C-alpha cells in the first residue's frame, strides 16, 4: 500500500490546524493511501519526524504549514527517496505561490483539499538544496537565505505571539513596522565562486527560487529549482545610510520596488550574481535567516547540493521553473 505521513505545525496559520488537516488525511485515505498524522511539538521537530518517515520507507511526506515547516521537512528528507508534498496552510507560502498551489483563504476552506487533488495529479521533480553553515547553525535552505535586513527582522519578530499569528501577514507586517527604523547596515565581503564583492550592504539574499518575502516579491525572473546554481542579490547600504539610520527602510523599499518592477538592472544599488558556492563575511556580525527561520550569525557559507530533494509539483507549476520534465507520481509508485 502507498504510505504517507502528514506533518503539521499546530501553531502555523491563523485557524485551528487540526481541523484543517483531518479532512486532508481522509481525502488521501479514500484514494488508497495509508496516512499517519504527526503534529510537531517543538522547533526542529518536523525535521526529526520527516527523517523517521524516510528511514521507514514512507513514499510521501505531506508538509502542512508555512515555508518554515516545509523547510524543516526538507531537511529531514534531503538525500532520501521520500517525496516532499507541500500542503500550504501557514502564514508564509512562497513555495505554494511558486508552484501555483491553492493557498488557504478565509473564503475558501477547501483549499487544502484542492491542493491535495493537484498534488496527486502532479510530477516528482528533483530539486537543489542550499546547505548553509553560519557561525552558530548548519542545515539546508529550501528557498532562500538572507543576511542583514531580513535576518534582523526574523531575529526581532520570531517567535511570533499568538495575536500576530491569528492576523497572518497583517500581524507580521505590524511587527515589522515597529522595528524597521532600526535596520542595520554592514560592511561585507561576498565571494561567489571566483567573484568577490566588498562593499557596504543592507541585505544579501541567496536563493534557488524566483519569489521572495512570502512569495510577494519576484526577486528573479529566471531562477530554476534544479540548475545547480544560486541567484545572489546584494543590496547596497548607500552613502547616506552609512551614517544615518532612518533612510535605510526607505532604501530597502526602493530596491524591492525596483525588483518587483523588474528594473533592478537599472538600479546601481542592486548587484546580481550567480554561482555554486557563496562565502559571506561581515563587520559587524549580522543575523541570518533561512526560509523565514532564525539561522545564526555571519560568517556564513552556502553550497549548492544538486537534486538533493524529491519534490511533488502540481500540474499548475510552470514548466519553466525546472530544467527537467519530472516524473508523474503514479509512474513512480
UniProtKB/TrEMBL annotation:
Gene3D superfamilies: 2.60.200.40, Probable inorganic polyphosphate/atp-NAD kinase, domain 1. Its cofactor is Mg(2+). GO terms for biological process: phospholipid biosynthetic process. Keywords: ATP-binding, Kinase, Lipid biosynthesis, Lipid metabolism, Magnesium, Metal-binding, Nucleotide-binding, Phospholipid biosynthesis, Phospholipid metabolism, Transferase. InterPro entries: ATP-NAD_kinase_N, Diacylglycerol/lipid_kinase, Diacylglycerol_kinase_cat_dom, Lipid_Phosphate_FormReg, NAD/diacylglycerol_kinase_sf, YegS/DAGK_C. It holds the Pfam family YegS_C. One of its GO terms (molecular function) is metal ion binding. Signal peptide: none annotated. GO terms for cellular component: plasma membrane. The keyword Amino-acid biosynthesis does not apply. Residues 1-136 form the DAGKc domain. Belongs to the diacylglycerol/lipid kinase family. NCBIfam families: YegS/Rv2252/BmrU family lipid kinase. This is Diacylglycerol kinase. It comes from Candidatus Promineifilum breve.
Amino acid at each position: 500500500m502507498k504510505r504517507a505521513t502528514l506533518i503539521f505545525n499546530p501553531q502555523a496559520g491563523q485557524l485551528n490546524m487540526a481541523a484543517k488537516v483531518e479532512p486532508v488525511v481522509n481525502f488521501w485515505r479514500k484514494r488508497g493511501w495509508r496516512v499517519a498524522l504527526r503534529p510537531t511539538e517543538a522547533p526542529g521537530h518536523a525535521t526529526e519526524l520527516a527523517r523517521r518517515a524516510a528511514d521507514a520507507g514512507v513514499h510521501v511526506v505531506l508538509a502542512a504549514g508555512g515555508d518554515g515547516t516545509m523547510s524543516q521537512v526538507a531537511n529531514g528528507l534531503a538525500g532520501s527517496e521520500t517525496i516532499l508534498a507541500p500542503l500550504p496552510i501557514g502564514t508564509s507560502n512562497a513555495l505554494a505561490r511558486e508552484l501555483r498551489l491553492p493557498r488557504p483563504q478565509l473564503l475558501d476552506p477547501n483549499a487544502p483539499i484542492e491542493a491535495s487533488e493537484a498534488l496527486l495529479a502532479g510530477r516528482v521533480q528533483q530539486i537543489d538544496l542550499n546547505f548553509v553553515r553560519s557561525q552558530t547553525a548548519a542545515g539546508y535552505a529550501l528557498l532562500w537565505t538572507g543576511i542583514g535586513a531580513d535576518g534582523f527582522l526574523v531575529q526581532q519578530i520570531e517567535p511570533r505571539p499568538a495575536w500576530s499569528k491569528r492576523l497572518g501577514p497583517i500581524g507580521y507586517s505590524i511587527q515589522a513596522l515597529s522595528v524597521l527604523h532600526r535596520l542595520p547596515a554592514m560592511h561585507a565581503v561576498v565571494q561567489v565562486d571566483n567573484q568577490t564583492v566588498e562593499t557596504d550592504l543592507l541585505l544579501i539574499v541567496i536563493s534557488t527560487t524566483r519569489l521572495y518575502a512570502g512569495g510577494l516579491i519576484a526577486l528573479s525572473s529566471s531562477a530554476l529549482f534544479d540548475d545547480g546554481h544560486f541567484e545572489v542579490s546584494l543590496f547596497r547600504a548607500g552613502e547616506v545610510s552609512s551614517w544615518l539610520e532612518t533612510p535605510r527602510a526607505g532604501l530597502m523599499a526602493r530596491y524591492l520596488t525596483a525588483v518587483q518592477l523588474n528594473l533592478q538592472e537599472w538600479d546601481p544599488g542592486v548587484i546580481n550574481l550567480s554561482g555554486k558556492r557563496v562565502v559571506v563575511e561581515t563587520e559587524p556580525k549580522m543575523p541570518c535567516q533561512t526560509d523565514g527561520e532564525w539561522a545564526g550569525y555571519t560568517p556564513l557559507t552556502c553550497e549548492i547540493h544538486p537534486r538533493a530533494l524529491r519534490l511533488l509539483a502540481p500540474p499548475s507549476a510552470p514548466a519553466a521553473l525546472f530544467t527537467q520534465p519530472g516524473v508523474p507520481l503514479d509512474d513512480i509508485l
